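Morning. Coffee machine broken again, so started the prediction first thing and wrote up yesterday's gels while waiting. Chain of 683 residues, entered below exactly as on the submission form.
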Amino acid sequence: MRDFKYNKILLLCIVIGLAAALTIVWQRHKIEESSTTIEMVMEYEDVVELAQLEGVPAEHVMRRMKEAGITSLAVYETTLEKLNKSGKVAVLSGAQLLQQYYTGMLGDAVWRNLVEIGRIQAEDVYVVGRDPQVFAEVKEDLIERLSPERVAVLDSQRQILAVKANYEKVLKWNLGLPTDEMRYVSGQGFYVVARPSNYTKVEKENVEGVFARLSGIENVSALIFVGDEALGYPDLLPLTLEKVKSKQLTLGLIEHPLQLQFFKQEGLVPMAIANDYKAARVYVIPKDEQPKLKSAEAVQRWIVTDQERNIRINLLRKYDKAEPGKTLLETNLEYVANVRDGLIASGFTIGKAGLFHPYFPQVFLLVAITIGAVAAGVLFLTLVRPFPARYQYALLLLLSLVFAFPLLKGSGNAVRQAVALCSAVIFPVLAMTWQLDRWKKLSIEGRGSLAGIIKDGIGGLIITVMLSMVGGMYVAAVLGDVRFFLEMEIFRGVKVTFVAPLLLITIIYLARYNLFENEQEDEKDIWQQVIKLLNYPLYIKTLFVFALAAIGAWIFIGRSGHTAGVPVPDIELKMRAFLERVMYARPRGKEFMIGHPAFFLAVMALYRQWPRVVHYAMIVAATIAQGSLVETFAHLRTPVLMSFVRGIDGMVAGIGVGIVAVLAVQVLCYLSVVLGRRSVKNE
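Came back before lunch.
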């Protein structure tokens, strides 16, 4: 029987690394606690449309929305179509004017004269202004979007433009930010969230023109770009950045619908970095999804989103259908107010979007964590196959130097990712390994009672979870900087953290137990056991078991990450929603429904001396929970306190489910004995 020893020097390195990790985690927690202000935004056009649908003045709806909790209105670039519908300009096609002239329906003398002198062309578009400022901006925008050669003034007194463009398409082209709308929004007491788009072959005048319009507007809080590029991309980003800094604007990062990072807008991330990370994550419920959500479900979505994903700008869409017994305005006002009240009850404040301090951990702390992670890896190797201490120290020193050198040079992003991955994989395995070694030295005689199983299951699980938490602290700390808070960077290796611990715990298990026999004295080499497994006779029942295992693996791996194609059952979605309402942090199902109950059953399998294969299966399932617990901390956009509480909530819920599982198995065992006796009597 091999004697597996835990090298105290390696353990000391791990403890020192933990102290460094806790230091960073505390600093990170203070930064996260200082950024809890949510900016609640609606689109200006939505508010105006709501007023039109209700038949009330826009000022009335805006006042009510402000009282309900909206802090800001998003103003998009206008289009000829919007201006035409609002009556600010009239847009006519040359073909339409010529048709009216030749049918005798064109009565205006000015237009008739323009046709007669050949100034009206069928393929051109004609814009007629009403307000001098709006007309001047439309003219300026059309020239910048097209070219001076394609835009001509036909009549300055009547404010008529001739534009060489396709009528159907030019109606929908973005022009520029309308100063009248932005000034109106600011005058109503809202922050203005400007939403410009980039220009084709953008020039210096284009960028300066956008900010010239913003210069006269008070209370502009944020800039959220429209389209696939930031304003000024590719060559004029420095100019845009200069203007953003001078206006002290927050850059909006729109979260991707898959809830992983954000919509790719070329040039945005470098600009946000150069803006000293003065950026905020933005979330909007997808347009095709919101009608499917009841108002209460949408409210809960916002609360969970802001709590768990560092969202600081909520871009709310209006509901287009009134709830029973309410007007459309009342429906939307109640929706907004409920979001505001829910956020305040969850500890947030409402106002201008909160920002994260541009925090980066101190290098010496990262080096200490790196050495601790290397020590954990070396310790794992010694627990698979012991080797002399001098080689352990040599390996520790060599790997520590290799990984620490890039950090000391001031780079080391790849090293930090590697340390995080190592921590997420190794520490759950070490926690379960310690438990296996503890059980192996334990006398199980007289411990098979129901009370003993439950007692040891609770105590063992608590200790194992705390040991796994060490890995969680390592991950939360080594990747704990502002880039990860804003999800400009993400943890790489999520799939690996779900699979690798299961393979490693299998190696650990085979190094300690003979999988095919219960006699501990007849232990075999790991490779011998693998060979025996490969030579195992193939029965239908064996194929059935492997098929079930394959399906389970497909679901387990496929459900991880954000791009999975494995559907989530409705009953699980309802259970998630319930847990989100009743608990501070919803625990993960793979922890409290699978892994932690399996830990209790592993204790039961050991104490009742069930077949070794059953005990092994329970150990693997229990390791799933420990790996999931550590991987929770790899979601760096989630506040570290919430990740910690999620793990504790999962443990508490898992203890409850585990006790139920033990009782259920006990009842099944009892029934099988009773039914077995009856069958014997009948024979």
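The longest helix spans residues 640-682. Going to sketch it on the whiteboard this afternoon.
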